[in-house]
Amino acid sequence: MTSVIENEDLQDALDGMGIHEVSIVNTFGNLSKDVMQNVFGDSVGVEDFKGLLPIFNYDHDHKLEGRFLVFKNALVMYSQHPFERDARLLHVALNDLENFHQKKVVVELMCTRTLPEIVGFSMAYEAIFRTNFKEDLKAITPKTLDLQVLLGVCELPYKGKMDLEHWRRNSDFCGIVGAGKTKDALKKLTEDRITSINSWMKNNIDFPFDDVKTNKMFVIVQQCIEDPVGYFTKVLEDSFSSRSADTLTRVIVTRNSIDLALIDGEFTKRGKKSLCERIGNTCLGDYKDFLLTLVPASAAPITPKTPKKKRGSFFPFR
Question: Reduced to 3 DSSP states, what percent helix, strand and coil does the chain have, rounded to the nearest 5?
């Protein structure tokens, strides 16, 4: 006798990111009394109980719980004020910097946000966690090369440098391809930003600069600054390969109103399938439907029935 969790329909409900709620309901809701009787048996004696199989294989309990949380976490992240959202992402990352993925999150926040956004989530971080994120980062030991690179990118935005991301988003670079002058100006600003970072790293890091230039963390910093669309496209590709719902959610939610259309175009060009197609083939249930509503030009099967959420005050988390 097999447990209900081994039912083929139920396995299909778990085969992807998220969970197919309809299959779960149908599987458990349509169990006959005979099946229930076979599972639970007539006796509940101690010895007999050892041989009984539960209606649900609890080895899968954690897996099922995580799948339901995927949709909940996506909704919560989308509903948060961007400053609160980024502050919480940063706090999670700083408490798990042994994880290379979380180091990348810090770089994303510092290198792909505008200066006003960085100031905003810095204030949100202090309001929520009663501490300064740069002080939290400085307190982490040992001072590895990765950590010192992160310290560098956290210091640079406050040095009065040109706000490259603000310029990029508010020029005709986004959407319609701009004139040659626009491209040249973007190239010059990007080069200036890279030069500033290189200069800071040479003067402030306790490692030879040749080591810095080949450091994976430093390479990611340059990618985020030089080509954020290409960087996030690669992150999305990796999220599908590794079935990382957290990463997929983070990119789609945080880039939704910024450059997700450009990312989708690059993603389609590289993989021959659109972001919508990959979501449709990989994700499940309400989580899939929710992501499809966020991707530009999505032919999503559902539309939100509730009115658009009004953004709260500057600090909606108080």
Answer: 70, 0, 30
